Amino acid sequence: MTGAKSPHQKSAEWTIAGAEELLGSLAGVVSARVVAKPGGEVEEVHLLTTGEVTPKQTVRNVESALLAHFDLAIDHRKISVAQTVGVSRGEGRATGPAVRALPQRSDSRILFIGLETQSQGAHQVRCHVELEWRGTRHRGEAAGADLTKSRMEAVANATLRAIETIFGDKDKEGGSGGHGLALDGVKQVDAFDRRYVLVGVHVLTGRHVIPLSGSAELNDSPDRAVIIATLQAADRWVRGHI
User: Fold this and answer.
1) Is 74 exposed, middle or buried (0-12, 13-18, 19+ CB in 10 A)?
2) Is the pTM of this model over 0.70?
3) Which residues have a Cβ under 8 Å from the Cβ of 12 and sit 6 or more positions away?
4) Which CATH class is domain 111-239?
5) Which CATH code of 3.40.50, 3.30.300, 1.20.120, 3.40.30 fits the domain covering 16-101?
6) What is the per-residue pLDDT for 82?
7) Vertex 165: Cα angle to 116 and 231 (nearest 5)
């Protein structure tokens, strides 16, 4: 664990790569992954560790290291620790004849990784959404007019295209049958003195059409709210059918 910095020592500006490198140097940590919101707020920290340090102590070490090096405070509930047996640090090679990782939860969520937008021609925008599911990145894109409603629909469609690539991977493995996701609509609503984004999605599977919906509070980033609402609409159904 790192020592305390002096009162006159300035904290380094944190980056995801820098934070992951720091956490990877902690006792017992085999690998570290940090997920942050577009604005820079840490959303999740995932650690794979050996049995050298207890999960509870690892969480404390993470909190202390991020605070000491980057003056970055993080809620302990955002830190998840999975322990593995028989893995050495560094290259992560097995020290015995077999490596037994703790089983991955079947309800592991689809994670939002990032959003890129590009202006195209006259008042057109192309959106690229990147998601992660069980360690694999999935990317989707869609275009629309650079107007509030059309842009939100483009962001939602890009999210759905990224989700569909998860189905595509499973189809190649002989898993799910043909599935498709269609956007029903995106709408902003006011309720309880707050503003929310509502997203409606249709799952197209065989001859059946299944309606889904999700919502997210609209704060500083409308694009992010649309992505979160779209994921909320589709995530649980998707994970139950792949």
Assistant:
1) buried
2) no
3) 18, 69, 70
4) alpha beta
5) 3.30.300
6) 78
7) 65
